[in-house]
Write a structure and sequence with these properties.
alpha+beta, Rossmann fold, 34% helix, elongated
């Protein structure tokens, strides 16, 4: 039945069908088989011809279509992984490839002086905190960071905090306080539900790829072997 339908298919119809790589491969294997049975085999002088004079398809076209299929599948994989990264990762907007920042990176100069987002709107007396150092370089600036899971649980609620170079910053809190969730958002494992954070001037919502070049993360569990 397949060969009966093939006799009715035009060249354009066959090329459209070859957008499935298995169809392209099947055509190529079929032409190899036919030429081997005739005793000629596939040669450079006949790879662009079909054993059947009425057939516009040939071995060369099937190979070219497999290359086209590979390019299409590569583009689809790149796009789907960017927009739907799965359980871990920050999804990009559907039109991310239209943004200049994706191809050229963040062209804005990294000015951490404007990244003191966390506590400048509130007085130190109100927050009961010591003054932030003015002689140290700001590394991470978190402003109003929030994470709400799909079940409605609020894991991180309006967190604002600054990390400075030459200092060690530690999170202390009970189980479920949001420590791991905060680190997961800062490292790009989860997207934030609200607020943002800047790491050396780069926003975790839009510049995670460039941030990862300067970021190391040691998780609390074994990422290779389950317990």
């Amino acid at each position: 039945m397949a060969y009966a339908w093939e006799d009715r298919m035009t060249l354009s119809t066959k090329l459209v069908a070859c957008l499935l790589s298995t169809v392209s491969f099947g055509y190529g294997a079929g032409y190899i088989s036919q030429y081997e049975m005739s005793g000629d085999g596939i040669q450079f002088y006949n790879w662009n011809k079909s054993p059947d004079p009425s057939d516009g398809m040939n071995f060369l076209l099937s190979m070219l279509m497999m290359l086209v299929d590979a390019a299409i599948y590569l583009i689809l994989t790149w796009y789907i992984e960017a927009v739907f990264p799965g359980q871990y990762g920050v999804p990009r907007p559907w039109n991310f490839f239209l943004h200049r920042s994706y191809w050229c990176g963040n062209t804005k100069p990294r000015d951490t002086r404007d990244s003191h987002l966390a506590f400048r709107q509130q007085s130190d007396e109100e927050l009961k905190l010591e003054n932030e150092p003015t002689h140290l370089k700001l590394g991470v600036s978190i402003k109003n960071l929030k994470k709400v899971y799909s079940n409605g649980k609020v894991a991180v609620d309006d967190l604002s905090l600054n990390f400075y170079e030459s200092q060690i910053t530690a999170f202390l809190g009970h189980n479920g306080a949001g420590k791991t969730t905060t680190m997961s958002m800062l490292t790009g494992l989860f997207p934030p539900s609200g607020g943002t954070a800047q790491i050396y001037g780069s926003d975790i919502r839009t510049d995670m790829d460039s941030i990862r070049h300067e970021l190391g993360f040691c998780p609390q569990h074994n990422v290779l072997f389950g317990e």
